[in-house]
Design brief:
By secondary structure, this protein is mostly helical. The chain is about 30% helix and about 0% strand.
Amino acid sequence: MVLVKDKRNNILDPLSAVSGIIERRHTLPILSNVLIERT
């Protein structure tokens, strides 16, 4: 497990953008369909 600390909007805005296209039946829909990379 990796702990990420950042400002709320830096993470929330991109996740909100993709949340509408992800299937709602999954328990963790966003985490199962989004790749977060460190650059």
